[in-house]
From TrEMBL:
GO terms for cellular component: membrane. The chain crosses the membrane at residues 20-40, 72-94, 101-118, 124-147. It comes from the Eukaryota. InterPro entries: Integral_membrane_SYS1-rel. PANTHER family: SYS1 (PTHR12952), TRANSMEMBRANE PROTEIN 244 (PTHR12952:SF1). It is a multi-pass membrane protein. Its main location: membrane. This is Transmembrane protein 244-like. It is found in: Membrane. The keyword Endoplasmic reticulum does not apply. The gene is LOC115374065. The lineage of its organism: Eukaryota, Metazoa, Chordata, Craniata, Vertebrata. It comes from Myripristis murdjan (pinecone soldierfish). Keywords: Membrane, Transmembrane, Transmembrane helix.
Length: 161
């Protein structure tokens, strides 16, 4: 029996299993991200005592950026807290390469935001907040993943980054 004819099937099966795992992790990360966004947003709306909870909170980049604008502050605080907390939870789900999932979720968020608002975000304050939130998500998630999975043999050390 020739073993070389059976290798592609085994590699192909492993590849499909890996792709399915990545897709499931990505869907879980998106679910975590938007669930957290709405939960944190509703708490912030209540804390700032705003009259109307806006269901578009994760996608709203059109609110006038000003310190005196409570809705803008709620949007900003919700975004930053969501990114901070998401990184911690992503580490629990994916256990490695949190940066990859954080970046992918952020790119999908930009795409979904553009589709929901029917406009590409051009507000520099929104991009600055998004970038700083992404930085927080990656740093928190990678640190948590590193320290919780450090005992695993298969987890890469800092030297491999």
């Amino acid at each position: 029996m020739n073993l070389s004819t059976h290798r592609p099937v085994a590699v192909n099966t492993r590849l499909k299993t890996h792709q399915a795992t990545v897709l499931i992790h990505l869907l879980l990360c998106l679910l975590i991200f938007y669930s957290l966004y709405y939960m944190i947003g509703s708490v912030c709306f209540g804390a700032f005592r705003l009259d109307h909870f806006d269901g578009l909170i994760p996608f709203d980049f059109k609110t006038e950026p000003a310190e005196s604008n409570s809705k803008y502050l709620v949007n900003l605080l919700s975004l930053e807290l969501t990114y901070f907390c998401s990184g911690l939870l992503f580490a629990a789900v994916v256990r490695r390469r949190v940066w990859d999932y954080a970046l992918t979720v952020t790119l999908l968020h930009i795409l979904i935001t553009s589709l929901v608002m029917l406009e590409f975000p051009m507000v520099w304050q929104w991009w600055l907040a998004l970038g700083s939130g992404l930085f927080l998500m990656i740093c928190n998630g990678q640190l948590i993943a590193y320290f919780t999975c450090q005992s695993e043999q298969s987890y890469p050390s800092f030297s491999s980054y």
